Amino acid sequence: MTHETLGSNAEAGASAGLVATQSVRLFDEENPLVLESGETLAPVDVAYETYGELNAERSNAIIFCHALTGDAHAAGHHGEPKTDGWWDSMIGPGKPVDTNTYFVVCSNLLGGCSGTTGPSSIDPKTGTPYGLRFPHFSVRDLVEVQRRLLKDLGIERLYAGIGGSLGGMQILQWAIDHPGEMKNALVICASSRLTPENIAFSSVARNAIMRDVNFQNGDYYGTDRQPDSGLSVARMLGHITYVSEQALERKFGRERRDTQGPTFGIDFQIESYLDHQAEKFLGRFDANTYLYLSRVMDYFDPFADEEAAVARLRENPTRFLVVSFDTDWRFSTAHSLEIGRVLEQAGCDFVREEIASPWGHDSFLLPVPDYHQLVRDFLAGKR
Amino acid sequence: MTHETLGSNAEAGASAGLVATQSVRLFDEENPLVLESGETLAPVDVAYETYGELNAERSNAIIFCHALTGDAHAAGHHGEPKTDGWWDSMIGPGKPVDTNTYFVVCSNLLGGCSGTTGPSSIDPKTGTPYGLRFPHFSVRDLVEVQRRLLKDLGIERLYAGIGGSLGGMQILQWAIDHPGEMKNALVICASSRLTPENIAFSSVARNAIMRDVNFQNGDYYGTDRQPDSGLSVARMLGHITYVSEQALERKFGRERRDTQGPTFGIDFQIESYLDHQAEKFLGRFDANTYLYLSRVMDYFDPFADEEAAVARLRENPTRFLVVSFDTDWRFSTAHSLEIGRVLEQAGCDFVREEIASPWGHDSFLLPVPDYHQLVRDFLAGKR
After folding, report:
1. By the number of CB atoms within 10 A of the CB, which of A139, A220, A375, B354 ranks highest?
2. Cβ–Cβ pairs < 8 A, chains A and B
C-alpha cells in the first residue's frame, strides 16, 4: 500500500531521527474493515508514526496504543506548530523505550480525528462526514486496525505492546485475543471494566457535548456552529479526573488571580488551569470522536465471562506488566488488582506494581523515576 | 411584619401539625440588607417553614440551614405537587429532631429561587429580574438574613442550629460570629475551606451553565430559551459527587437497559439515574441561583486567619457536633478533621464523629441509624 507523508514535517522528524506522521489506506471498498458488530467500513485510512529502526529479524517492534484523546504523535518534536509527542518522556534514544534498540509504532485510533478514519471523515455513500452515522466499534476493533497496520509494515510479532488508560485496555485485549503475538504486554493504569462512577463521568461529558445546542445531532461539520461549549466542559471534567486531589492542592491550592472578590469569571488559579485545558483541546479534537471513544471504554469488559477469559489466557506466553499509581482515582489500583487477579487465576506470567506518584492518572504520561525504571527493566527482562 | 402563606397548602400542612411555606419581607427600601461587601439590597423577602411550637420561654427553637439546592420545605409532606421535605427523615414528631419538643425553622436562602429574594427576583430599579446584576454575597450574609427572620419570629437564642454541606458552613459561621446565640451547633459533612478539587467541580458546573448558548448572560427569564442543557449537566455532575463510588456500584453496577448494544442514549442504568436527576432538577431550580450559591461556597474560609479565628472561638459557649461520613468524598472526613482541629485549639466543647455509611455525601439526608442516634443524643445533651 502507499504510505503518504502528511504535512511538511518530514525534515523535522528526520533531523531527530524520527519519521513524521504518515498515512496509509488499510481497508477499501474491496477489502472493507469488518467490525466486531458485523458492520463494514471502508475506506479506512490510518495515520501513524514510527521511531527507531526495525531490525533485520523484525523482532524489535513495539506498538503504543493511545488513550481517549491521543493521536499518532507519541514521540519527538514536530508538527505544525511543533509539538512534543504525548509520550515523549517515555520514547526516544536512551529513554525507557529506547529507540536505539526498539522500533516503535503509534497510530491514531479508529474513530479518531487526527488522520485516521473517524466520524469527521467523509462517508463515501453520502459524500458528507459520517457524524453519528459512523458505526459503533469496540476495543477489539481498535486492536484489529492496528494489527493490520503492523502487517502492512511487515511486522508479525511484537516485542511489546504498551498503553495507558484506554491504551492499556487495547493492549490487554490484544494479548488475550492473539496469544503469542505480543511478547510483553504493558498495561498501565487501565481497567478491565469501568465502574458505574467511571461511566457516570463519561456520561456527563457526553451529555455536555450532545446537549450543546450547536451539536446539531453530530452534523456540525462545515457549519458555523460547533459544540465548543460542550466539548470544553467535557474536557474540564476529564481533567479533574486525570489529576489527584493532592496534585491540585500542590499545584494550585486556593490561590486566587488578582480579582477583586467574587465574580463568575476565573477567580481561582484552578479555574484558570481548567479553562486553559479546554481552550487547548478545542483546537485539536473532535466532539464526535470523544463520544465514540468514551463509549468504547464503557462497554469494554473482557472478563465478563470470567471462566472463558481464564481459559483463553491459560498458557498464554505473553509476559504482562500491570502498573497503577497510588493517587490515580480515575482507574485506581483496584482496577489493576482485578486484572492481576484474573491473570493469576490463568497462571499467566505477570508483574503487578503500584507506583507512588502524586499526580494521579496523569502520572502515566510523566517521567516518574520508579515507573520509568520499571518499564525499562521489564522490557529488558529484568523484572 | 406581615407573614403571608404561600400557595394553598395550609390545610395539608396543618393536618400534619405543620405549617406550609410562608413569606415575610425582612428588608425594604428604608431598611435594606447591608451585605458584607457593603452593597445594599432591598426588598428582601424570605420564604420559610416552621414545625412544632415555640415554647413560652422561647428556648426550644432550632434553625435548619439548607444546602446548595435546598429550599424552605425541610419537613412534612405538602406543596403542589405534594412533596416530602428534603430532611423529613430528621424532623418531625418522634424523629431525631422531635417537633414535639423543638420548634424548627427553615428558610430558603438569600439568592435562592424558592420564595426568597434572589437573581430571579425583580430588581425594583429596573423592573426586570436581577440576573447577574444580583450582588455577590457571602455565607455571613446568608446567616444574617436568617438571624433577622428569627428576630422577626421573636427568637433571640437558638437551642440549636443544624446544617449539612453548605448548611453546615452557615452553622459554623453563625456560631463563630455570634457566641452565645446558638447553644448547640450541628455541622454535618461540611467544610471550612473548599479544596481546589471541590472548586474545580463547581467551576465545571458553572461553566456548563454559563457556556450554554441559551444562558444569555443570565437574562434568560421570560425568554423562550433557558439554559436547561447547562443546568442539567451541572446537576448530573453534582450527583456524581454526592454519591460514593460504592453506592453507585451497589445501586447500579454495570446494569444495562434493554438496548441492543452501544448507542449514545441511555444504555446503562447509571445513565438513566443521572438523566432522571437532571430532569427533576430543571423543574424546580434556577441556573443563576446555582451560580451564586456555589460561588459562595468557593469563597468560604472562616479560618483563613487562623489565629484570629481561634481567638474569636475561645470561651465560645456553643457545643459543637461535627459529623462526617466515611464514604463522603465531596466533603470527606478530612474537612471535618480540619474544623475539629481549630475547635480543639480554641478549647471549644465539641464532639467530632465519623459515621460509617455507604451512601457518600448524600448520607446526611438519609436515615442512617448511628447518625440519627448521634443527633438525637447530642441534642439531648447525652453526647
Report:
1. A139
2. 145
The verdict on A336 and A237 lying in the same domain is no
Question: Minimal CA–CA distance to B367: which of B79, B96, B171?
Answer: B96
> Under an 8 A CB cutoff, do B233 and A37 touch?
no
Domain shared by A64 and A141, yes or no: yes
pLDDT the model gives residue B20: 82
Domain-terminating residue out of A254, A271, A296: A296
pTM (2 d.p.): 0.95
Per-residue pLDDT, averaged over A91-108, amounts to: 98
Domain range for A331: 3-194+301-379
Q: Which of A296, A328, A362 is the last residue of a domain?
A: A296
State residue B82's pLDDT score.
85
What is the per-residue pLDDT for B19?
58
Nearest of B9, B365, B370, B329 to residue A332 by alpha carbon? B329
Same domain flag for A155 and A207: no
CB contacts under 8 A, B 27-66 vs A, are: 37
**What is the count of structural domains for chain A?**
2
Judge if A209 and A281 occupy the same domain.
Answer: yes
136-155 of A, contacting B, C-beta below 8 A: 136
* Smallest CA–CA distance from B136 into chain A, residue: A262
Half-sphere exposure at residue A142, Cβ-oriented, CA atoms within 13 angstroms = 32
Are residue B256 and residue B121 in the same domain, yes or no? no
What's B50's domain CATH number?
3.40.50.1820
Q: How confident is the model at residue A261 (pLDDT cuts 50, 70, 90)?
A: confident
Q: Do B204 and A245 touch (CB under 8 A)?
A: no
Closest alpha carbon within chain B to A253: B196
Q: Is B294 on the interface with A (CB under 8 A)?
A: no
Q: What is the pLDDT of residues A299-326, one digit of tens each?
A: 999 999 999 999 999 999 999 999 999 9
DSSP per-residue letters across A96-146: SEETTT-EEEEEPPTT-SSSS--TTSEETTTTEE-GGGSPP--HHHHHHHH
CATH number at residue A203: 1.10.1740.110
Predicted confidence band of residue A8 (pLDDT cuts 50, 70, 90): very low
Length of chain A: 383
Chosen from A140, A254, A294, A300 to mutate, greatest number of chain B CBs within 10 A: A254
List chain B residues with CB under 8 Å of A134.
Answer: none
* pLDDT value at residue A17: 44
At A196, is the pLDDT very low, low, confident or very high (cuts 50, 70, 90)?
A: very high
Q: Are residues A290 and A306 in the same domain?
A: no
B69 and B218: one domain? no
Among B338, B95, B204, smallest CA distance to A241 is for: B204
Which percentage of chain A shows pLDDT scores above 90?
Answer: 91
Using only C-alpha atoms, what is the Rg of chain A? 20
Looking at the fold, whether B98 and B144 belong to one and the same domain comes out as yes
Indicate yes or no: CB of B232 within 8 angstroms of CB of A207.
yes
Average pLDDT for A138-147: 98
Query: What average pLDDT does range A72-92 have in this prediction?
Result: 91
Task: Report the pLDDT averaged over residues A148-171.
Answer: 98
What residues of chain B score a pLDDT lower than 70? Answer: 1-2, 5-19
Q: Please confirm whether the linkage preceding A81 is cis (ω < 30° from 0).
A: yes
> Is the CB of B254 less than 8 angstroms away from the CB of A194?
yes
Please state the rounded mean pLDDT for residues A251-264. 91
Share in percent of chain A as helix, strand, coil (round to 5): 35, 20, 45
For the packed helices B333-345 and B306-313, what is the interaxial angle rounded to 10 degrees? Answer: 60
Cell numbers linked to A41: 467500513
Judged by CB atoms closer than 8 Å, whether chains meet at B245 and A195 is answered as yes
Active-site residue, A370 included: no
